[in-house]
Amino acid sequence: MQADTAEIEGESAPKGGGKVRLKTLNDLDRRTTAARVVFELRDNLAADLGGKPNLSVMKLELIDNVACLGAMLKDAAASYIAGEPIDINEFMALTNAQRRLLADLGLERRALKDITPSLRDYVASNYAGAAK
Q1: How do residues 87-96 score in pLDDT, each as one tens digit?
Q2: C-alpha distances in angstroms, 130 versus 94, 118, 120, 122?
Q3: Alpha-carbon gap, residue 27 to 32, rounded angstroms
C-alpha cells in the first residue's frame, strides 16, 4: 500500500471482507491521454484562479472534480463527433455538473500577483533620467 493511499473497511469491501484501496489522482499513470487531459485542465484552472498556493483545499477539490468531468466530456464529445453513439442524458448531466462547479469556483480569471507598480515606483523609473 502507498503511504498516501487510505484503506477502509465497509459495505463496499470485496467479497471475503477485504479492504478497499481508495485511489486518488496521484495514483494515475500520467502517461495516459486521460490523465494528461485531467492534469493539464487542473493546472490551467488553478492558474486562472490565482495559482495553487493561493487556493483553499476546498477550491482545489472542486478543481480536481471539474478537471475529471472535463476529461469525460471531451471523451464523449470526441466519440460523438466520430459518429459513435453516446448517452445524451449522461453527457448533459456531466455538462451541468461541470457548469455548476465552475460557477462555484468563479468564471473570472484572477491574476497570480499584482504587478502594477506603485505611483512612486512608476515615476521613479520613468522620470529618473529627466531629473538630471
Answers
A1: 999 999 999 9
A2: 60, 19, 15, 13
A3: 12
- Where does 2-117 show beta strands of DSSP type E? 7-8, 20-21
What does the chain come to in residues? 132
- Cell numbers describing residue 69: 468531468
Residue 8's DSSP bridge partners are 20
pLDDT reported for residue 4: 45
pTM equals: 0.67
Q: Are 27 and 2 in contact (CB under 8 A)?
A: yes
Burial class, 109, CB count within 10 angstroms (exposed 0-12 / middle 13-18 / buried 19+)? exposed
What is the band of 49 on the pLDDT scale with cuts at 50, 70, 90?
very high
The whole-angstrom separation of Cα 25 and Cα 63 is: 12
